[in-house]
Amino acid sequence: MGKYPVSPLAPAAFPELPVIRGASFATVAAGVRYAGRTDVMLALLAPGTQMAGVFTRSSTRSAPVLDCQAKIGGDSEAGAAIVVNSGNANAFTGKNGVTATEAVTRGAAEALGLPVERIFTSSTGVIGEKLPAERITAKLDELKAALDEAAIAVAAKAIMTTDTYPKGAAAEVSINGETVKIAGIAKGSGMIEPDMGTMLVYIFTDARIARPALQDMVSAISDKTFNCITVDSDTSTSDTLLMAATGASGVSVEAGNAAFEEALHGVMLDLAQQVVKDGEGATKFVEVTVTGARSDEEARIHAKSIANSPLVKTAIAGEDPNWGRIVMAIGKSGAEADRDLITIRFGDVLVAEKGWVAESYREEDGAAHMKGQNLSISVDLGLAEGAATVWTCDLTHGYIDINADYRS
Amino acid sequence: MGKYPVSPLAPAAFPELPVIRGASFATVAAGVRYAGRTDVMLALLAPGTQMAGVFTRSSTRSAPVLDCQAKIGGDSEAGAAIVVNSGNANAFTGKNGVTATEAVTRGAAEALGLPVERIFTSSTGVIGEKLPAERITAKLDELKAALDEAAIAVAAKAIMTTDTYPKGAAAEVSINGETVKIAGIAKGSGMIEPDMGTMLVYIFTDARIARPALQDMVSAISDKTFNCITVDSDTSTSDTLLMAATGASGVSVEAGNAAFEEALHGVMLDLAQQVVKDGEGATKFVEVTVTGARSDEEARIHAKSIANSPLVKTAIAGEDPNWGRIVMAIGKSGAEADRDLITIRFGDVLVAEKGWVAESYREEDGAAHMKGQNLSISVDLGLAEGAATVWTCDLTHGYIDINADYRS
Question: Which of A216, B36, B311, B396 is the one with CA 20 to 30 A from A38?
Fold first, then answer.
């Protein structure tokens, strides 16, 4: 943290996050790996809080991820707590990983008077080093004493590894004339020191939502937000999203409530895009939209193929409206396409249609769009109605600088 | 060509390629795009020559690729010819692409007295620009007059786009006391000017082989050679491999002849590895072997996931023995793995076993291996007997320099 400058794509300021009744936060400098900064956060959640989660699909996922997944459907009566440390991912640490996770969850359960099944932990940082769990457990009483409903912004800082800025987003929703609030924080995808690639997301609401409805909402919206971003096609062993609904507002939200879903979608999309905007070495934020595919899933395959192509991403870094590479990325994706039906646009500029460059296209128009900081690439395949949008950044010398550094 | 220095991984010299009876070559400077160099090659193949081919699976493949694919099974009586131009890929050029391919094949058929069905063409270079076919057809008589059995080495140069060195390989095989010869040339994967990413491979033998046997051999060996290399995970619209068996030695090779297959495998692997060694910005050549997978196909998925990971490739560029990123790449591949059974080696150095760093591992041993120019990464998954090897290069600032340049 601090080794690299703040991303040029960072928001102007950290947003004002509302107090979520039933959720309080504390942070501490436990010295897990970093010196001179907070590196452990505790979130305490009121009795009755419903938890939902989405986790990495990696087959080499970390001990804390496996522990969270096992607990996510549990009884909510007692409340819950989330303990997160930065600096050490506790991933690929063999049996030590399980031992360390157990030590933290058992310690937190005792300190907070909660069942161990209601303690959710995440670890982010270096892979393959033993987590010094005792440094975390030694600070649990201090954390408990410091709990504060207004401390979510400092929590966003404690979970950073090599992020260049903390990430937060919030929304308010009116339900039958009453207001519920949503606030979320996220970290990633720095990768600024080797082995640090985890994305962690924590979202809180004071709405009262049944667990199945909450999980359905979180899973569905994740697919359209966090599962639609890519920095470099690499997937962490520790990615975790947890959402807590405390119910403290007394306002019930039923499954399928459009206003709440829209607000939650907004918060999750904002956080997801903030993660991309902190991508290693990023100088451009790029929205890739594919329409006219055989299905939404095929549209996403094409969009991801474009967004992950090193040749597309380096062309964007070079401000080159290189539509030939878009054609290449569509061709290699494995999903269906007909070369002679493809239409490509950069922003509003029609670049190619019917399998060749558009008659109206002038290279300087494409080049002008590429000079912006927020770019859009749209492809219509002309086959059917499938559509998808993904978000990515460019591939620059900064990425190589950051990731070819020897760990030290 | 010439804009970037010769790859540090290039062979010391272009190999001595034998004359293949029944095959003759000519090159010319036609000015398709480049000035001051040869850019069209003609190979004329004797009557009875059997042709086999392997082509890009891209759904946006170019007009010459589609034309070659349609012709590959045709009657061999009349002989055949291969016409290749560099500088323009004739890809994503709409109807113009078909028109230009027809002009070249018809012109060559007339000049050489061959049926148009026996003229195979490839084009490599910029995507999306109209191919000036007339510049090629104007030179066909000159090419015919220059045909020379010994000119295969100059042919290797004419097909280069932004390769930093020409690529050739050869073998001799003894079949029942008689000798047959194999010689091949390849180009790729420069990408040194945007839109130039085609891999072209032409292999010639004077053995007599029936077309189905030849095609089976070429397809099977391609899967273990050219389909096991990756520079940047991007797939060209024009990749083409053609093999011609002239039969001029009078020596018959039957399907399944182990000596011939081994020799052909050697030539194809050599050419494939030369393509990787000319990867954009490459400074390290890396062999990735995965064993113990559920199947050979699952082993290849894991190996490709490692070889294509930007984080693994930048770590290699930084000479960082970053085994955590190997674990990450295995985890994200989608193929089966059990975190706690994985063994990882860099060269002979045991790095990780049973889900954690090996007790015997010393970081300086891993670091010492990474300082070499030819690296090996081996992963055993401990699940079953599936195995695969792929070859790749590192991801360096050179790649960004080359590909973030604006086309000009």
Answer: B311
State yes or no: pLDDT of B193 exceeds 60: no
Given this model, what pLDDT does residue B189 score? 66
Contact B324 A128 (CB under 8 A): yes
Question: B323, A236: Cβ pair inside 8 Å?
Answer: no
Instruction: Kindly state whether A383 is in contact with chain B, defined as any CB-CB distance less than 8 angstroms.
Output: no
> What are the start-end ranges of the H helices in A322-381?
323-332, 363-370
Catalytic residue, chosen from B49, B162, B198, B343, is B198
The class of domain B23-277 in CATH terms is alpha beta
Where in chain A are the domains? 23-277, 285-403
Q: Say whether residue A371 is in contact with chain B using an 8 A CB cutoff.
A: no
- With CB atoms and an 8 Å threshold, state whether B127 touches A324: yes
User: What ipTM does this complex have?
Assistant: 0.83
DSSP-based three-state secondary structure for A85: strand
Residues 109-138 of A with CB under 8 A from B: 126-128
What's the CATH superfamily of B285-403? ArgJ beta chain, C-terminal domain (3.10.20.340)
Q: Which of A61, A62, A234 to mutate to test the interface with B (most CBs of B within 10 A)?
A: A234
Q: How confident is the model at residue B49 (pLDDT cuts 50, 70, 90)?
A: very high
Q: Please state, in angstroms and rounded to a whole number, the distance separating the CA atoms of residues B186 and B269.
A: 11
B189 is annotated as contributing to ligand binding:
no
B198 annotated binding-site participant: yes
Q: Is B262 annotated as a binding residue?
A: no
CB atoms within 10 A of CB B351: 24
Q: In chain B, whose CA is at the least distance from the CA of A405?
A: B318
Nearest to A336 among B59, B235, B323 (CB): B59
Report yes or no: A366 and A349 within 8 Å, Cβ to Cβ. yes
pLDDT tens digits, B198-219:
688 899 999 999 999 999 999 9
C-alpha torsion sign, points B300, B186, B195, B127: negative
pLDDT in tens, A253-279: 999 999 999 999 999 999 988 988 988
What is each CA distance from B40 to B83, B154, B160, B276, in whole angstroms?
7, 11, 10, 24
